[in-house]
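Entry 14: structure prediction run for Xylose isomerase. Input pasted below.
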Amino acid sequence: MSDFFKGIDRLAYNPGSDGLAFQHYNPDEVVMGKRLEDHLRFAVAYWHSFAWPGGDPFGGQTFDRPWFGESMEAARLKADVAFEMFDLLQVPYFCFHDADIRPEGATFVESLRNFEEIIDIFEAKMETSKTKLLWGTANLFSHRRFMSGAATNPDPDVFAWSAATIKTCMDATHRLGGENYVLWGGREGYETLLNTDLSRELEQMGRMLAMVVDYKHKIGFKGAILIEPKPQEPTKHQYDYDVATVYGNLKRFGLEKEVQVNIEQGHAILAGHSFEHEIATANALGIFGSIDMNRNDYQSGWDTDQFPNNVPEVALAYYEILKGGGFTSGGTNFDAKLRRQSLDAVDLIAAHAGAMDTCARGLKAAAAMLEDGSLEDARRARYAGWDTPKAQKMLTSDLATIAAQFEADDIKPEPVSGRQEVLENIVNRFV
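Run finished. Output tokens:
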């Protein structure tokens, strides 16, 4: 045991408490026939919680953690602290990149040896912990070798390094019982078209994805393969710009039945969408998988990865998730980091507790809206005309037949109100 969280007790549901406690998240509360814990499926992000030093584009490290350092001793201490926090929060899942959990070795083989030692530690800790692995992934963006991408790199040796890294991370995810494997194309994009062969890079990206799917089946991994869309940062233009772009790429390579998406709130905003838009689009296309729950600072205009605290925003996201049937293998991963001035251990616990409360409030509001039915009644009424046999027939007809019938009927369509303000008022009754 470490003493990093010394003096902090395991959190419990204790509304009205002035201390560290859940005010709204009761994991055993039943909503729409399911426990809140089973609805929300919370996960802690290893990278922001334990590996991020508190820097920003204009300044370096502000956090002073006892496990910081490029040694296996530090990595082992980091694992101890991580599982102690999982226990304090009683969180059901965590997520990691390979580079989050082990120091970089001088060679690929040395890095792999370091990685596998920490996976051994994780496996032992998970035997006595309630916390499971929601998903694993590979960091193919931080090291300078990936400055021009991983799968899309112009250097075939980097492509090979990336393929080998993905394999090791998939093996580890499978071994730990992970429920998904995520591909985030950190630098899969371009800075300038002046030195970029778009066609070649997209073909390389598609080939890597196909190999990932093939390997999933080869090793018998039953979890979902997820892609995380992001429009920019770190590259000027990312190939997985948003959900719709990901789906287009999946269709091109015949993988739309094999791969789903892990959607981040902050990335959705950077793409010019709302979080609920991206979730609804993924549901409509049949590729919804999981979410990274965070928020951006709308004045900053970039991906600030803050813990969620906006209940109305969160409620609309969970409304679309519940409407689509809820999570299966996915969940709510807090891809969020402390502000660089929040230095203390208690800040890390308080940030997660507040975020879990925010999500619980949002999900309960979303469930109440669905059970009330007013929004869905209004939606059905708006499209009711399409339920008639005559309207349905148009969808299998042709232009000339439709035009002839329309002229014969001599109908003059009249606009009908979309009632947006009325619907927004309904939402405001619940949030």
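Notes: The radius of gyration is 24 Å. Will compare against the previous run tomorrow.
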